[in-house]
Amino acid sequence: MLTNGIATIFVTDMDRSVRFYTEILGMRLNQRYGNEWAQVEAGRLVIGLHPASGKNPAGRDGSITLGFTLSTKIDDAVAKLQQKGVKFRGAITEEANAGKIVYFEDPDGNSMYLIEVRQWPQESSGEREYQNLSRA
Question: What is the model's pLDDT at position 136?
Answer without folding.
Answer: 37
